[in-house]
Write a structure and sequence with these properties.
The chain is an alpha/beta fold. It has a single domain, classed as Spore Coat Polysaccharide Biosynthesis Protein SpsA, Chain A, CATH 3.90.550.10. It has helices spanning 16-26, 45-52, 70-80, 98-109, 127-144, 160-163, 175-185, 212-231; strands at 3-9, 32-39, 59-64, 85-88, 116-123, 156-159, 189-196. A seven-stranded mixed sheet has the order 3-2-1-4-6-5-7, with helices on both faces. The termini are far apart.
Length: 235
């Protein structure tokens, strides 16, 4: 298996049929797999997955019985991936599954080096969201001493060997920061490529509903984790 992609699904019943259809459209080789993590969903996500996956040979699922956070679900999925390169993207259809094939093309055009870290660079976002991202990127860059920007862009793709170096990754949305920061510290070759980031088709974001309150909660969690990184001496 060349590429394994984790898709965390928490109450994404409406989007799952769409994302599976889109993956089916773009996966034209048999060495790519998709691992959909039912991250403790309380809607009918489990039944939708069980009903649909029999029609998609490239996809399988695992279940996290109790939701412990976005990052926890992704890490559970990464642990069962079979690919030489692994990573994740979202289930909300704001990130196009075709971006994973672009990431794989970049990997293979660079000799499938284990030193690669592939990450999206979001385009087409609202001005306020761009301003928010720029502010967080500047803070993290100055505070942690590594060039970090558009930290939450998708997808994230890297070698299994890099994943095996991780120690105590965060269970929440700070996972994106942790992975990019560790890639910088390990001196990986980080390749960014432009990805479109449209509005969600169904459901509501579980962290970013557009309110100032939601943004502040995200900032606080990110700052708390940044302090932990510094305290742990990883910096």
């Amino acid at each position: 298996m060349q590429l394994s992609i984790v898709v965390p699904c928490y109450n994404e019943a409406e989007n799952i049929p769409l994302i599976l259809t889109r993956f089916s459209d773009v996966i034209v080789r048999d060495d790519v797999e998709v691992v959909l993590v039912d991250n403790g969903s309380t809607d009918n996500t489990p039944s939708i997955l069980n009903e649909l996956l029999k029609d998609y040979s490239f996809a399988r699922t695992i279940r996290v019985d109790v939701n412990q956070g976005y990052g926890y679900g992704i890490v559970c999925g990464l642990k069962v991936c079979q690919g030489e390169f692994i990573g994740w993207t979202h289930a909300d259809m704001q990130t196009d599954p075709a971006d994973l094939i672009k990431a794989l093309d970049i990997i293979e055009s660079n000799g499938s080096s284990a030193n690669l870290y592939i990450k999206g660079n979001r385009k087409g976002r609202a001005l306020f969201d761009q301003f928010f991202t720029s502010g967080m990127s500047l803070f993290e860059t100055l505070y942690l001493g590594e060039k970090l920007y558009d930290i939450n862009a998708q997808p994230n793709v890297f070698s299994r060997k890099f994943f095996e170096t991780w120690q105590n990754p965060p269970k929440d949305f700070a996972l994106d920061l942790y992975a990019l920061y560790m890639a910088r510290k390990e001196n990986l070759q980080i390749e960014r490529f432009d990805v479109l980031f449209p509005e969600r088709l169904h459901g509501e974001s579980h962290w970013n509903n557009g309110s100032i309150k939601a943004k502040w909660k995200f900032i606080k969690r990110t700052l708390d984790f940044s302090k932990k990184l510094k305290k742990a001496g990883i910096c």
